[in-house]
Amino acid sequence: MHHRPLVADAVRSLQHRRPAGATVQIDKSDSSLPFNLFDATRQNPDYHDRFTLTLVIDGVRAKWEVFFTGYEGATPPDFIFSSDPHFDPDLPSMTRWTDRPLSEALVSLFNELIDAYRAHIEKQIREHPVDSIRFAYQQCAGAQQRTTDYAVKCAILPRPDLPNRPEFQAVRFSLTLKTLYEKIPASPIRDSIQRNPVVVKVDFSPSSADQQTPKFGITTGILLVKEVANALGPMTTPLWEFETDIHSYTKLCETMLLDRIRSHTTAFVARKAYAAAFLAHFGSALLEVDLEDYRTLSFLFGVNDMYATVIISHPTEGPNFPETMPTISLLSTSVVTAGGSPVSITYKDTYPWSPRWLPDEMATRCRLFLLETIPVFSSKQAK
After folding, report:
1. Which band of pLDDT confidence, cut at 50, 70 and 90, is reported for residue 1?
2. Does position 2 have pLDDT exceeding 60, yes or no?
């Protein structure tokens, strides 16, 4: 009788179910474990009953080995916690293993297991032999009780070379700014930060393992999703002063971010109004508009039967719009270079402009400039 190989399916499901918010990967490169406890010759991965998993829990990798007795998962698995041999959790889900489908039972077990692992790590940090780390933990725990603005997670960055020297363990505090988006005006960047909250990280790292008592250095960072990082551009985190505490440092990072985001959002709103003014004046000549960020507009303009493609683009670096004026590029519709590209000319700061003008006046002044410029540009290409 054929039995469906349930264990492999259940383990694979962990990769997209993300138990307790952790990332789970099946380590396919580890060939040290036999494929199947009862039949090591079976090569079909659907019949494996032993797995090496790499988990990313709060930004730190952990390697766990999972052992089932056969590929049907009739009994709960055993574990070897390779990255932390001192982790020995009590798991009530083990006693309810057959009360639900295998995949659900395994996800529930991993939820419980990862929560227990976090509690284990937190206990190690709470009892860390280094005073400054214990103090930082107390600050985080106290701040989390006083406010719901952010969530705190702790992690130990493993030192495989010093497994029995806990005083040399590096510690990371990650503070998620849960309510930051509420302080941001409506914009794409607000939506992105609501979906992917900003994280401030503070690492306490021993400078050297050659001494009896470690000296810890502190490094900091702000973790942003790619689209937000690209929008805001390069940033330098605030300097960690000698008497800084984690709570006040997080507030400092939040203030810096809000200033940067508000500047970015103000520029976004201004670019949108600028684009709307152009569309109101020249909508019938529109070729393309960037509706996501309003950084580019293109039109096909004709003056006295002389035509040119006009591209208006906002720079991505330097002061924000309208302090920095957009560039205007004219592209010939009939003449190309030897390389096959349209002949073009770009005006960066040589047309009428004032950041104090309203968007409608900016569009009107640009129109007058183009009325003079396009015939000259087109006639040169016709010669």
Report:
1. very low
2. no
Report helix, strand or coil for 364: helix
Question: Taking the C-alpha atoms of 309, 312, 317 and 323 in order, what is their torsion angle to the nearest 10 degrees?
Answer: 150
Q: Give residue-wise pLDDT tens across range 207-246.
A: 665 666 667 778 888 888 888 888 787 888 888 886 778 8
Q: Which residues of 140-160 are buried (b: 16+ CB within 10 A; e: fewer)?
A: beebeeeeebbebbbbbebee
Interacting residues of 197 by C-beta distance below 8 A, sequence separation 6+: 176, 177, 178, 180, 181
Structure tokens at 237: 């985190």
Distance CA 105, CA 9 (A): 13
The rounded distance, in Å, linking the Cα atoms of 375 and 178 is 55
Residue 111 tokens read as 């939820």
- Bigger pLDDT: 83 or 2? 83
Rounded to an integer, what distance in angstroms lies between the CA atom of residue 342 and that of residue 311?
Answer: 13
Assessment of whether the complete model's pTM goes beyond 0.85: no
The helix-helix angle for 131-146 and 102-126 (nearest 10°) equals: 120
- The contacts of residue 215 (CB under 8 Å, 6+ apart) are 206, 207, 208
* Residue 132, both tokens: 């400054």
Q: What is the CA radius of gyration of the chain?
A: 30
Quick one: DSSP state of residue 312?
E
Q: What is the band of 358 on the pLDDT scale with cuts at 50, 70, 90?
A: very high
Residue type, 32: S
Q: Would you give the distance in Å from CA 177 to the centre of its chain?
A: 13
Reference 314, options 261, 369, 355; nearest CA is 355
Check residue 24 and report its DSSP letter.
Answer: E
In 279-322, beta strands by DSSP E: 286-289, 296-303, 306-313
Residue 33 pLDDT more than 60?
no
H helices, E strands: number in the chain: 7, 13
Query: Rounded distance, CA 101 to CA 96, Å?
Result: 11
Count Cα neighbours of 187 within 13 Å in the Cβ-side half-sphere: 23
Residue 310 neighbours by CB distance under 10 Å: 22
Residues 23 and 54: beta-carbon distance below 8 Å: no
- pLDDT of 31 reads 42
The two three-digit tokens of residue 168, written as one number: 């040399």
Summarised one tens digit per residue, pLDDT across range 268-278 is: 888 999 999 98
Task: Please state the rounded mean pLDDT for residues 39-58.
Answer: 67
